[in-house]
Amino acid sequence: MIAFENVAYNYGGGELLSEVSLKLAPGSFHFLTGPSGSGKSTFLKLCYGELLPTAGRLTLFDREVRGLNRDEIARIRGRMGIVHQDCQFLDHLPMAANVALPATVTGREAPMQDLADLMGWVGLADVMQAMPPHLSGGERQRAALARAIIMSPEVVLADEPTGNLDWDMSLRLLQLLIELNRMGKTILIATHDLNLIRTAKQQVAARVLRIAKRRVQLAGADL
Amino acid sequence: MRRIIARLRPFLAAEGHRDNVVPPSGHTAWLTTFTAGAMTFLAVFALALSLAASRMADRWEGALARTATIRISAPPDQIELQTRAVLDLLATTPGIASARRIERAESLALLEPWFGPDLPLDALPLPQLVELTETEAGYDTTGLRLRLSAEAPGAVLDDHTRWRRPLVLAAERLNLLGLVSIGLIATAMGAMIVLAANASLAANAQVIRVLRLVGARDSYIVRAFTRRFTRRAFLGALAGTAAGMAGIALLPAADAAGGFLTGLGFQGAGWLLPLLLPPAAALVAFFATRAAAFRKLKELT
């Protein structure tokens, strides 16, 4: 599904990631950890084609990413759900329209009932018509998750999805992601919250990837 | 044309939820509408100028080309003889529809505005004038000149070519200037809309980022921006055209004394021509925004 073979990424001021080789199998659940600035967000951006590797071979859905044009990358993103760290929305559209955006941009109309059910599932049924600037950090995180999964993507990539949430809300969001994984979705969550990882590992066969010294390694059972 | 209209229709329809991903406000909104309105207003006048010049060129080329004058300068005792010889000659010349002697009183009336009523025009040795009108087929100018020199040595044929040609040329140039002006107006409008579209795309970098994050293709993003600018340009051009046509309608009616200026306007079906300007402005906006948006999205990659 997503395969790295000796991938490196260089920002221009030195190599941030090097010799990354791993595969995210369909239906797997991965956490990505590492200190701030270690390259977690960069790794995720490579996973959804926003950045291209400076060396090595990266394939997304069996397509070598460097050979893809912008439309093909857009098509691949249509098969992914991305929860970005800063949860950006279109501030002039109500939340319901924002959550339905992945459907809108592909020319499809998300059925209102499905949309309402989804927003109810993430606990946002009351704010469907609210404008994004009026939502709290937690509501925005959950809305970003709802937007990421509305098209039933094969992969969900989440960058610090619980960064703005209290523990209760973090657990609730984690439960949503575990539920999606049980539905067969591939999940990759970048986080530095070790409690969240421990909690998840009690419920799901999650593997932990750790970025250290520019390498991405499979972490042991010490977490 | 039908394909173009079908392609433009969704851009001109009321904005729907699906294409409402571009924020509706901002300076670029009124700038585009105002530019399209002002430019189309000017284009209406340029079009009116071009059409009026075209009519004038046709009139001068058509009506005046059918007439010619023969000037007979001869000693007083020869004038009448040569005039009769010229009239007889013209009566038998193929291509001449009619010929008439311009009476002395008529000649004096033509001169009076130039010399004033007090000058003793009667004392001037005026030449005798004969006006001729040719048929559709026309006559042989060289042959007529040769026959005149044989039959009436004092007669000179003036077919108005010398003074008619620069007038027709001037009218044709005015017509061309009008068309060039419309082209320049369209280019300037396109350039300003490109600037407005670039500003809008730069101001909405976050919108583009979000759209790309959720899997929007470039063509979708371009369509969202293009649709908005095309619609704004069309509405602005519609207002500009209406104002321009009202301005033309309020000009004084065509009058011989007023000359060219009072003839500046549309006649008959010509009033329909300005109605082509709003769709044309929409087309300019469509292609200008589309090119600018694709270029900008490439830069933002």
UniProtKB/TrEMBL annotation, chain A:
Record-annotated ABC transporter domain positions: 2-223
Keyword annotations from UniProtKB, A to Z: ATP-binding, Nucleotide-binding
A cellular component annotation (GO) from this entry: plasma membrane
Superkingdom of the source species: Bacteria
InterPro entries named among the record's database cross-references: AAA+_ATPase (IPR003593), ABC_transporter-like_ATP-bd (IPR003439), ABC_transporter-like_CS (IPR017871), ABC_transpr_LolD-like (IPR015854), P-loop_NTPase (IPR027417)
Gene Ontology MF terms: ATP binding; ATP hydrolysis activity; transmembrane transporter activity
Pfam families (alphabetical): ABC_tran
The protein's name in its UniProt record: ATP-binding cassette domain-containing protein
Organism whose genome encodes this protein: Szabonella alba
UniProtKB/TrEMBL annotation, chain B:
Alphabetic keyword roster: Cell cycle, Cell division, Membrane, Transmembrane, Transmembrane helix
Matches recorded under InterPro entries: FtsX (IPR004513)
Record keyword Transmembrane helix present: yes
GO biological process: cell division
Record's signal peptide: none
One GO CC annotation: cell division site
Keyword Metal-binding in annotation: no
Annotated TM spans: 29-52, 174-197, 233-251, 271-293
PANTHER family in alphabetical order: CELL DIVISION PROTEIN FTSX
Name of the protein this chain belongs to: Cell division protein FtsX
Organism: Szabonella alba
Taxonomic path: Bacteria, Pseudomonadati, Pseudomonadota, Alphaproteobacteria, Rhodobacterales
